[in-house]
Amino acid sequence: MSPVLITGFGPFLGFTANPSEMLAKDSGRDHVVLEVSYEAVDRFFARVDPNSFQTLLMLGLHGVTTDMRLELLAHNWIGSTPDVVGEAPKGPVQDGPLILSGTLWQRLSLERLLGSEPICLGYHPGSYLCNYIYYRALCLFPDKRVGFLHVPEARALPLGRQSEALDALLKVIE
Asked: How far apart are CA 45 and CA 56, in angstroms?
């Protein structure tokens, strides 16, 4: 069993490069890069073996932040923005509570990391694929450590610095 499985997303909307993809690939951990589509996320969950990891860390691009954001909550809502294949299933993610708390961050001591790295806390992972994958993962893997990390564009925070911060975070996680 791998301790950590990392997911990232490919390009979408006007973003031709997605730093979450590059960070997942360069993490040195087991990783999967997903197309930015609801169907791709659903296929991932249908085939992933929950016995193959202890921690699921999902990464996604946040187009306006300048820091990496540890998202504490997932919301049971999908907005109206179409994915890369044109699907926009607006409404609840699935039957369940309106909000779920991530199960990774609450079990970690993050004070030193938050003070030394370009990382902050976030409380809303949006209403697009980042939130969708996070909410679904929390429902599917209640006994696993599940967390979501939003990352900024490389022009807002250089990719090398993001990689260093992710390494520091992974040391705390593992």
From this structure: 12
How many residues are recorded in the chain? 174
Tens of each residue's pLDDT in the chain, 174 residues: 579 999 999 998 888 889 999 999 999 999 999 999 999 999 999 999 999 999 999 999 998 999 999 999 999 999 999 999 999 999 999 999 999 999 999 878 888 889 899 999 999 999 999 999 999 999 999 999 999 999 999 999 999 999 999 999 999 998
Tokens 């979501």 correspond to what residue?
A: 148
- What domains lie within the chain, and their CATH numbers? 2-173 (3.40.630.20)
**Per-residue DSSP letter, 32:** E
Can you say how many angstroms the Cα of residue 59 is from the centroid of all Cα atoms in its chain? 3
72 Cβ neighbours under 8 A, 6+ residues apart:
101, 102, 105, 106, 121, 122, 123
Residues near 88 by beta carbon (within 8 Å), at least 6 away in sequence: 78, 79, 80, 81, 82
Which residue in the block uniquely carries the two structure tokens 């996604």?
A: 60
Residue position matching structure tokens 């993001």: 162
